[in-house]
Amino acid sequence: MIIRLADVKDAKGIARVQVESWHTTYPGIVPKSYLDSLDVKKREKIWKQAAQNQPLYVAELEGDIVGFAIGGENRDKDTYPEYDGELYAIYSLKRVHKRGIGRELFEQTARNLSARGFKKMVVSVLSENPAVDFYKHMGGHFLGEETITIDGKAIAESFYGYEDISKI
């Protein structure tokens, strides 16, 4: 497995991982109408732009992108102002879970944030996501919960904080 910085040519693989991850993780949690609307081509455009503007890491296994992670400045400083950094997204294909890929992506993104001067990091995760224990295992402590709406359905979202990302 290789963890490396992504570039624009990786956008299709990143989009595929994101869409497939939502389809394997969120049935019964997120409305089917939303899951059915996820489109690799539309997501590919978003990830091309992201790869040009933010450090975005991919996990590659046998030449195939199987996971990715991205982080930057906390986008919701009103809710958790003491956290300057945020893990925006971390996904891996279900077939590679339990191989340390998520850990490697998480740690690389946290190290990058620390190197860019961020001290603390927050992450949000749908509360019913089976991977929620991953964030606890990585040292996050529960900060709170909010309700978001996806395609008309109210869904609980949990927030986890990491106090000193230089130690991750």
TrEMBL record:
InterPro entries: Acyl_CoA_acyltransferase (IPR016181), GNAT_dom (IPR000182). SUPFAM superfamilies: Acyl-CoA N-acyltransferases (Nat) (SSF55729). Transmembrane segments: none annotated. It comes from the Bacteria. Keywords: Acyltransferase, Transferase. Pfam families: Acetyltransf_1. Residues 1-168 form the N-acetyltransferase domain. GO terms for molecular function: acyltransferase activity, transferring groups other than amino-acyl groups. This is L-amino acid N-acyltransferase YncA. It comes from Jeotgalicoccus aerolatus. The lineage of its organism: Bacteria, Bacillati, Bacillota, Bacilli, Bacillales.
